[in-house]
Amino acid sequence: MTPPLLPEALPTVLVVDDEVRSQDAMRRTLDEDFTVFTASSADEARGLLQRQPVSVILCDQRMPGMTGVTFLKEVREQWPETVRIVISGYTDSEDIIAGINEAGIYQYILKPWAPDHLLDSVRNAVEAQTLQRQTSRLDLELRTSNRVLRQRTATQMAQARSSFGFDRIVRAPGSPLDLVCAMAERTARYDIPVLVLGESGTGKELLARAIHYASPRLTGPFVVENCAAIPDSLLESELFGHKRGAFTGAYEDHPGLFQRASGGTVFLDEIGETSPAFQVKLLRVLQEGEVRPVGGARPVPVDVRVIAATHRQLEQRVRDGLFREDLYYRIAGITITVPPLRERVADIPPIARQLVLDVAAELGHPGATLPDEAMACLVAYPWPGNIRELRNEIARALALHDGTRLDAAAFSSRVLQGRAAGGADDLTAAIPQSGTLGERLDVIEAMLLRETLLRHRWNKTRAAQELGLSRVGLRSKMQRFGLDKP
Predict the structure, then answer these.
(1) pLDDT score of 80
(2) Domain 340-420: which CATH number of 3.40.50.2300, 3.30.1330.10, 1.10.8.60, 3.90.1150.10
(3) pLDDT of residue 425 exceeding 70
(4) What CATH number does the domain located at 431-486 have?
């Protein structure tokens, strides 16, 4: 059985008057809406206030030993939240008016008072007290929220710098990336456009993100758009937005990426793939600092920093008439080139180890390790797809391999052979273009021997069986080609 709801407590009123008839009259007037206490003197009222919280005090001005205004001054100091009302005759008005501010009197009521007027006055006083309490609470909550927000913002900024800073770009000591990161970090503090060049998969977006979080715009959003992944007709709407009814399917206004990124950074990846027609519109945005949504009549101001990236040689595309020269100079305030992985071989081991940790956690293979033999294979491979290809190779190996030790045999044949993928002509591409037939066949034989040994973890018996050789014959060929276990 559901218990009955308890009635809410009524607001409390204290009537201070030395005349009992006046006390009774005010009690009868207020009894239905309030809990009424009475006192015949200031001493009696003071004792009651020490025991009982009171919302409103109705105090007569003329009392033995102390006037109402004097007593209410004391109440203001000790019980400041209590609303104070004084009741008096005409002859006391000047004294009350003189003490209103000092005693903090909410209202004074002249005798003879009307019951409805008295009731409304007390109701208004209670409402004023409630509003004052709510205002004080909201003010406290606002101050607390602002303090928490500032602390949270500072924490988020520190976490963002820690997660996306230049120190998080994995590389070996003395890596060519050290100079790249130093230049990017110096560039980050200035609000000028940056063009990042480099092959696909080299980490251009990672560098752009580090620039954003090292810049004064770090508290703003960092938004990414791959210009090569969207047709021009949709790219304009995605970047600049559109108005309702601008085209079929535009059922509501859509703020573009530039508007959503206002105050932050826009990263335009593969900007070299955009058409000349779109380049004209993008140039206007960068020059004027405003976008015109598709179907919109008025431009919308935006405040963004643009970082663009491409794997293309934009200067050559400018000469070929495929990229606007004025847009090129607009986005290339500072140009930073990220070298490919094959030009920074020393970075492969730390990057590979970090990728093993990350991918293993994603796939549920914690504790996976890369032994030296497997690392030697990764270092020997040229990685035309750069870090993206390296990540895919590690993910493939972890998915197909049992155990935590990621041996060389877990990797694909092209990595084991140390040659890049290129379709059906991989083997042909690996053969030297000069030399005798025997010399060329030796290259092929050595490559196949090495791959087989790696797959069998340098177990000569199994490798010899697969190749149709005796152990003595295999050992002889290994000596001939200088194939030793790493």
Answers:
(1) 84
(2) 1.10.8.60
(3) no
(4) 1.10.10.60
What pLDDT is recorded for position 5? 41
Match 């009982």 to its residue by tokens.
Answer: 52
Give me the mean pLDDT over the 239-257 stretch. Answer: 74
| Token pair belonging to 470 | 């005796």
3-state DSSP call for residue 91? Answer: helix
Whether the per-residue pLDDT at 485 is higher than 80: the answer is no
How far apart CA 423 and CA 440 sit, in angstroms, is 20
Residues 6+ apart with CB under 8 A from 196: 204, 207, 208, 307, 308, 309, 335, 336, 337, 338
**Residue carrying structure tokens 């044949």:** 413
Can you give the pLDDT at residue 431? 59
Mean pLDDT of the chain: 82
> Residue 134, exposed/middle/buried by CB under 10 A (0-12, 13-18, 19+)?
exposed
- pLDDT at residue 444 tops 70: yes
- In angstroms, the CA 16 to CA 58 distance is 6
Task: With beta carbons less than 8 A apart as the criterion, state whether 300 and 141 touch.
Answer: no
Copy the structure tokens of residue 173: 């000591």
Answer yes or no: is pLDDT of 258 > 60: yes
Q: With contact defined as beta carbons under 8 Å apart, do 414 and 382 qualify?
A: no
Select, from the ranges 162-166, 426-430, 473-477, the one with the highest average predicted confidence (pLDDT): 473-477
Main-chain phi, psi angles of 246, to 5 degrees: -65, -30
CB-based burial label for 300 (10 Å; 0-12, 13-18, 19+): middle
Count CA atoms within 13 Å of residue 388 on its CB side.
11
What does the domain layout of the chain look like in residue ranges? Answer: 12-132, 177-339, 340-420, 431-486
pLDDT digits (tens, 9 = 90+) for 47-86: 999 888 888 988 888 888 888 888 888 888 888 888 777 7
Angle between helices 460-467 and 471-481 (to 10 degrees): 100
Residue with tokens 């990350």: 358
Contact indicator for 283, 327 with CB cutoff of 8 Å: yes
- The answer to whether the CB of 44 falls within 8 A of the CB of 84 is no
Pick the CATH number of 12-132 from 1.10.3300.10, 3.40.910.10, 3.10.620.30, 3.40.50.2300: 3.40.50.2300
CA 408 to chain centre: 39
The whole-number pLDDT of residue 424 equals 38
Read off the pLDDT of residues 316-342 as tens digits, 9 standing for 90 and up. Answer: 999 999 999 999 999 999 999 999 999
Any idea what DSSP says for residue 369? B
Give me the residues paired with residue 88 across strands: 110
Largest CA distance in the chain: 130
Domains 12-132 and 177-339 share a fold: yes
